[in-house]
Amino acid sequence: MFLRTPPRSSLPTAPLAGLALLLPLTLAACGTTDPGEAAPAPSEAASGDCADVTTSTGPVTLTDSFDRTVELDQPAERVAVLEWQQTEDVLSLCVNPVAVADVAGYTTWNDAEKLPEGVTDVGTRGEPNLDALYAADPDLVIIEAYTPDDEIIATLEEYDVPVLATKGADAADPIANMLDTFDLIAQATGRTERAEAVTAQFEQHLAEGKEAIAAAAPEQTDFVYFDGWVDGGNVSIRPFGQGSLIGEVGEELGLTNAWTGEVDPAYGLGQSDIEGMTAVGDATLLYTSTQEGEDDWVAELTRNDVWAGLPAVAEDRALPFPEHVWTFGGPRSAEKIVDAYVDVFTR
C-alpha cells in the first residue's frame, strides 16, 4: 500500500489536516496486466497560447526530485499524470496528457488550465487504477512523491515505463520548488523553451502585482489565508503559514503573512480553531471558497461570536478567494493567486 500525506484541501473529503492516508492497491492492479488497446491521444489544444511551441528532439536524460536518473529515447509525448499540480504543468507546457488521476476533482478545484476532451481518468490520485493507467500506453508517468522511498515509486517502477518523481512541496522555498517541478516536466517533454516563457510570464505577473498593490498603498497589508472544515460540530481551521506557496506569493507581493504559529515542513500548513485566529490581530482574513458537496464550514464560522468579533470580520475584510484557485498548483495557478491578492488589496 502507499502511505501518503497530501494536503487536506487537495482531498476535500479528508477529515483531518495532515491525516496519513493508507492507500492500498489491489493485487490485480499491482500485478502484470494486459493493457489492451491504447487510448488515443487527445487532439484539442491544451492551452490557448500553444501555437508554434518548440519541442526538442533526441534522447533525454535528467535527474528528478529524488536524484533518480530518468532516461527517455525521445521527449515524452504520451504522458500520464497522477497529481493536479503536475497535470496543470503538463497542460501549461502544451502537452495533452493521455491519462490523469481524478479528472472530476481537477476540474472542480483547478481551472488554471483546462483539460481537453478524451483524457483517460485513472481513478484517485492516491490509489490509481494501474490497469487503466497502463492501458493508456504512456511513455512517461509523472507522479508526486514525498520521500525517495515513497512506495508509489517502487510500485510503478515494476512496469517498463519511465517514472518522473517530483517533490510534493518544500516549505523552505515553495515558489522555487514549484518552478523546479515545472522545469523537470519541461525537460522530460522537450518543452524547455515553453517553460522559460511561462516562468517569465509568471515572474512578470508577480512584479506587476507588487507594483499595483504598492501603488494602491492599502492601509492594512497583514493577511492570513486559510481553509477549514467542520469536525464534530466545530470548525477546524488550517492557516497557510510561512513556507506555504500561497503565503509566500503574498509576501513576494509586499504583504505580510500574520500567521506565526507552528507549520509543517513541507506545505507550511498550521492548525487552529476559531479562537486561535484572535492571535492574528487586524490581519485581513482570506479563505478558500467552499465547493458544492463540501461541509459549509464558512456558514458555521458566521454563526460564531468569536469570529464575528475579529477586526477583519467587523470591517468586511474577511473574504473568499475566487473559486477554482488551486493553492498547490503550478505557475498558472500562482498567477491566479496573484490576481486574487491584487483584487483584495487594491479595492
UniProtKB/TrEMBL annotation:
Signal peptide stretch: 1-28
Keyword annotations: Signal, Transport
GO biological process: iron coordination entity transport
Domain Fe/B12 periplasmic-binding: 78-347
Gene Ontology, cellular component aspect: outer membrane-bounded periplasmic space
Pfam short name (any one): Peripla_BP_2
PROSITE patterns in the record: FE_B12_PBP, PROKAR_LIPOPROTEIN
Highest taxon above the source species: Bacteria
Keyword tRNA-binding: no
Subcellular localization: Cell envelope
Family, similarity comment: Belongs to the bacterial solute-binding protein 8 family.
Identification of the protein by name: Iron complex transport system substrate-binding protein
